[in-house]
Design goal:
This protein has 456 residues and is α+β, with helices and mostly antiparallel strands. It has 4 domains: 86 residues, Uridine Diphospho-n-acetylenolpyruvylglucosamine Reductase, domain 2 (2-Layer Sandwich); 117 residues, 2-Layer Sandwich (Uridine Diphospho-n-acetylenolpyruvylglucosamine Reductase, domain 3), CATH 3.30.465.10; 108 residues, Alpha-Beta Plaits; 100 residues, Alpha-Beta Plaits, CATH 3.30.70.2740. The chain has 17 helices and 18 strands. The strands form 4 sheets. It has a 7-stranded antiparallel sheet, sandwiched between helices. A 5-stranded antiparallel sheet has the order 5-6-10-8-9. It is globular.
Length: 456
């Protein structure tokens, strides 16, 4: 139970930006995927770094845990309040502070979403490319080291964050770097916070790299007789050094889901969605080269989408794959998991995962950002049936074990949260002890997001 003195101070300081309402707290105690609800005891909406400092100092005084919350789109239980305490909702810190056109960077508050940022940049000729699918907040994307469909060309959040401003557990405010594109000054604290999943401090500002909007963009889709042939085509495309903007794989079950949800009529076969960026000549050359590699691997004809509205429809359908898949089984919950492996091991990893799924009673579509070896399985489960939860755990465990044996990682972009805690030490060994030492040095009382990421 929270101390009444703390509750009174929070109410007096934040007014209607403070709530202990049951429905509000429960809303803030789970993310997008199926994870057991663990609600905080109160929620506070902050609007500035100064307010973050005040709140952190109050929580430190009363030894109350702090769980950050952005858009609530996390998939591994990052926002579960395992120890109760205060949820800090950052959605009202939603200002684009500065756009530096000549330097191609911008400064934003953590509650800005990726769509909001790109709308703000619309007239500048620049864009922010990291696209995890959901309209996630920038702060959440930093915290989980997000990536997505454009990562094969533009990199992940770790490649596109220049610095962060963060409030530490003792109330100090630090800025991890300057705006220069490179530096060899001291430890790389920016990368320490990128992927820290809210366990080291509250991020209150982020400086991001921006990229020029390409002169020409074209998209295509192509279906294959099997997932294996589609993946072999992707491997050849990557090994040939073709600078693809996006290469997305959807298996036949995912295509069936999209057809029903997005009112499309795609052939229900494994399908690659591709996108090319560059000059008009470069885009044409890249597309012709890829078309030839696809043909060699059993792919059907390219179906082009050159017009903006056609491309938008393709990628909206891809981004809606989660909701489309959940709709395949009304009343179910989606349990999304991911792994990432070296590109040469991708075909084996997906093939063996498919073999596991074919022998299971669970329905589980596969999609993947296969250009960088990352793919996802979505288990469609009834959370009231223990046998389905146990089966999902079993299949997820086999998938992770397989990825680790192939030199991969237990999560390419979802993060650890609580869902992947048991696999982190298996992947990184004594590195986890080093991470725990860093955590205790910065947050000795473990106030920030306790029980997550490194504490299994």
């Amino acid at each position: 139970m929270l101390d009444q003195g703390l509750l009174n101070q929070l109410q007096n300081r934040f007014g209607d930006r403070f709530s202990t309402g049951k429905s509000v707290c429960e809303q803030h105690g789970t993310g997008e995927s199926w994870v057991e609800l663990k609600a905080p005891e109160a929620v506070v909406w902050i609007q500035s770094t100064e307010e973050a400092v005040e709140l952190v100092k109050l929580c430190a005084e009363y030894q109350v845990p702090i769980t950050p919350y952005g858009a609530g789109t996390s998939l591994e239980g990052h926002v579960q309040a395992l120890k109760g305490g205060i949820c800090v909702d950052l959605s009202q810190m939603d200002q684009v502070i500065a756009v530096n056109n000549q330097d191609m960077d911008c400064v934003v508050q953590p509650g800005v979403t990726r769509k909001q940022l790109n709308q703000h940049l619309n007239e500048t000729g620049l864009f922010f490319p990291v696209d995890p699918g959901a309209d996630a907040s920038i702060g959440g994307m930093v915290s989980t080291r997000a990536s997505g469909t454009n990562a094969v060309r533009y990199g992940t959040m770790k490649d596109n964050v220049l610095n962060v401003t963060a409030v530490l557990a003792d109330g100090r405010v630090i800025k991890t770097a300057q705006r220069a594109r490179k530096s060899s000054a001291g430890y790389d604290l920016t990368r320490l916070f990128v992927g820290s999943e809210g366990t080291l401090g509250l991020i209150t500002e982020v400086t991001l790299k921006l990229h020029p909007i390409p002169e020409a963009t074209s998209a295509a889709r192509c279906n294959f007789p099997s997932v294996d042939e589609a993946v072999q085509a992707v491997i050849q495309v990557i090994q040939c050094g073709i600078p693809m903007a996006r290469i997305e794989l959807l298996d036949e079950l995912s295509i069936k889901a999209i057809n029903g949800y997005s009112k499309m009529t795609l052939p229900e076969q494994p399908t690659l969605f591709l996108e090319f960026h560059g000059s008009q000549q470069a885009v044409t050359e890249q597309a012709e080269w890829v078309a030839s590699l696809v043909s060699e691997n059993g792919g059907g004809d390219f179906v082009w989408a050159v017009q903006t509205e056609d491309r938008t429809r393709i990628w909206e359908a891809r981004h809606n794959a989660y909701y489309a898949s959940v709709a395949l089984r009304p009343g179910c919950k989606g349990w999304s998991t991911d792994v990432c492996v070296p590109i040469s091991a991708l075909a084996d990893c997906i093939r063996e995962t498919q073999q596991d799924l074919s022998g299971s009673f669970l329905m589980a579509p596969i999609v993947g950002h296969v250009g960088d070896g990352n793919f996802h399985v979505l288990f469609l489960i009834d959370p009231d049936k223990s046998e389905e939860i146990e089966e999902a755990y079993r299949l997820n465990g086999r998938m992770v074990e397989r990825a680790l044996k192939l030199g991969g990682t237990c999560t390419g972009e979802h993060g650890i949260g609580v869902g992947k805690l048991k696999y982190l030490r298996q992947e990184l060994g004594d590195c986890v002890d080093v991470m725990q030492s860093i955590k205790l040095a910065l947050d000795p009382n473990q106030l920030f997001n306790p029980g997550k990421t490194i504490w299994g």
